[in-house]
Design a protein that fits this description.
single chain
């Protein structure tokens, strides 16, 4: 997988959502091969980050939101 392709689908705070990539950009097995090879690190089911990108609080919140149903929103002190 070309790193530039992953860059295009990386969300603002660094997470990648499987639904954005599979099946239009890569196969499901390609998604899992990136995890096995260590190129991606799972954050939530269907949401990962690139291994070289450090995990931040904003990334964790972004990943949690991406792992929920469409239209969900963050609320409370952690979202402020």
């Amino acid at each position: 997988m070309d790193p530039n392709t992953l860059d295009r689908y990386t969300r603002p705070h660094g997470s990648l959502c499987r639904d954005d990539l599979v099946p239009s950009v890569m196969s499901l097995s390609g998604w899992y091969r990136l995890h096995v090879s260590g190129a991606l690190v799972a954050l939530h089911p269907g949401v990962s980050r690139r291994a070289e990108v450090p995990e931040t609080t904003l990334m964790q919140m972004e990943a949690a939101l991406a792992a929920t149903i469409p239209g969900a929103a963050l609320a409370g002190l952690s979202a402020a």
